[in-house]
Amino acid sequence: MKKLLFILTLFLFTLNSFAQTGEQFAEQNAVIDTFKVLYPTKLQSKVDRIVTTLLSRYHYKKVDLNDSLSSIIFDNYIKTLDYNRMYFLQSDIDHFEKYRYSLDDYLKEGILYAPFEIFDTFKNRLTERMHYVVDRLKTEFDYSISETFIPDRKKAKWAKNTEELDDIWRKRLKNDALNKKLAKEDWEKTSKTLTKRYQRFHKVILQYNPEDVFQIYMNAFASSIDPHTSYFSPITSENFDISMSLSFEGIGASLMVKDDYTTIARIIPGGPAAKSKNLFENDRIVAVGQGKDGEMVDVVGWRIDSVVKLIRGKKGTMVRLAILRADATFDMPTEEVKLIRDKIKLEEQAASSKIINIEENEKIYKLGVIDVPAFYIDFEAQRKRDPDYRSTTRDVKKLITKLEKENVDGLIIDLRSDGGGSLQEAVQLTGLFIKEGPVVQVKSSDGKIEVDRDPDPSLFYDKPMAVLINRYSASASEIFAGAIQDYGRGVIIGEQSFGKGTVQNLIDLNRFMPTKDEDLGKLKITVAKFYRITGSSTQLLGVMPDVQFPSLPRDEFGEASEPSALPWDQIAPTEYQIYGDIETYVPKLEEEHEKRIKDNFEFQYLKEDIEEYKIRKKKVEYSLNEEVRAKEREKFEKRKEERKKEREKYENLELKGKEEVKKPNIRIDDPLLEETGFILADLMILENGR
């Protein structure tokens, strides 16, 4: 269920318990009333009115809560509960239609019976489905029949009756079972695993309380306005507050629920996930195992906090994740990722540097690379006037000073997967590379525009530079990259960035209705937008690189993939002085780049993967015939093995103790960084040849 609950940051949660086994989790809350009907509370009615008032008055979008928005909220709520149209019948939807144009009035008045009635129907339909699942999984499927399965039913018609829904579910279960069979799992184990999968999900829904239902409904409302506005129920808010006060221990990843899968929302710099270099945003977790050989527990359809309980654990212990990659379709095999849980230190999340050597035109260019995983600042230490407080800008200054002593010829700022952070740091970091001038414009919900300027009139670094971005570079990263591009201060390389050009505030709802004993939760609300000094918004469009690397289509990734994302627009530009004319060199940089990557097998693999992904995304139906699916999987595994052999040709081994280990090879380990180095070297050649 897409974003059914909320994002939990795994690395923060170190409550006084370790990882649970699937069986331990299943034994909890054993007594559940299947027929219990949930009702809204009087307090929730009051919170409803507060949230509605705040969103209507203070959201950047200037929300007009009318019948049109009511219809969107209605659809959002139905999608949140049954995103793939696997539970409700057409008759249910017809019955709910009476609420389509009434939710706006209900929200204003604090009337909540509609969402609770819809949820109760959903819970009953889910119970019916579970009866069918348990019964159907008693008998193995016939995989020799030529029939197909349609996994994506978001735009499909609702099932007319139970018989039609049974057939949809039969094919879904058969697809699940076929994937298990192709992974060499016997029927007895498959039947047991799949039965447990759906029973656990059923149990999770049965344990929902009024607070859970209310949060889902409020977020259906909030997300209809924009994707970054959300309501945190008291328990969610409490968990968030607890997490912020604890030491960082876990795998170092933020998770969200998307389409029944626990999905990687963000990789935390310095954590085990980041260090493994084998876990990425939008990868889906299918199963979790403890230690080297603990049983893999299937977690598809689980509530996210239950998945957290399986993944978190003692520092130094291993957790194994069965991963379905972000660009993989439902019929593709999973990959196992092994991680050693660890405490994440601030130092490991800080900016870091290294030197790479690039040979171009028979000359070796020594390039400094500074990896900036986030725009951070220790506000508390700064407030206490600690002279050594940590921040991105302070750390980068030290790293540049160190690199200058090594006589580097140029600098690469690596902002890949940097999701942003402190606006102040984005402005100050930009200031290291320009003498003076504006960096970003911020337009508030009341229409006022503020210009944030470089506070330091000196130019700290004046040599050639490049900024490397990808589709997960967002917010503060886009402010920095956009400013460097607008000033002509450096060449921007990589993928079109995420496109998050909005600012959110977190509001404690108790401020608006003080209560002695009740926590009302919090509201995260969009209150402003970022604009570049040219007047162009970074919202939706992001930053377009000067030299663009092959990239997956943006309809699945980035701000543009969100239906309620605020639009791109522009305001008047500010006055600023351009430093260089990078645009003049871009055609030649692109020409040389294209020549190089023709002979670079890693770039060719990337292009092949993108084209393959585009083809797979157009595929609507998947065969449920074992022979057909086996051939498809064999083709995938063969290509994987061929690539592995190609890479081995370039691997160098060295002795470490008594074992041979692979020496770092930038062409294989980070081909995008290597190519960025070549492009920066080309820029220096062109500038010197003027």
In short:
The protein has 690 residues and is α+β, with helices and mostly antiparallel strands.
Overview of the molecule:
The protein has 690 residues and is of the alpha+beta class. 40% of the residues lie in helices and 17% in strands. The chain is built from 22 helices and 24 strands. The strands form six sheets. Strands 1, 5, 6, 7, 8, 9 and 10 form a seven-stranded antiparallel sheet that branches. It has a six-stranded mixed sheet with strand order 12-13-14-17-18-21, with helices on both faces. Helix 17 (476-486) links the parallel strand 17 (465-469) and strand 18 (491-494). Helix 3 (67-81) packs across helix 9 (210-223), helix 6 (113-136) packs across helix 7 (162-182) and helix 7 packs across helix 8 (187-206).
Strand content: 15-25%
Low-confidence stretches: 1-31, 240-248
- Overall strand count: 24
Q: Largest beta sheet, briefly?
A: 7 strands, antiparallel
What's the N-to-C terminus distance? 57 Å
Shape: globular
Radius of gyration: 26 Å
Q: What's the total helix number?
A: 22
Q: State the helical fraction.
A: 40-55%
| Average of pLDDT | 86
Which class do the helix and strand fractions yield?
alpha+beta
Assembly state of the chains shown: single chain
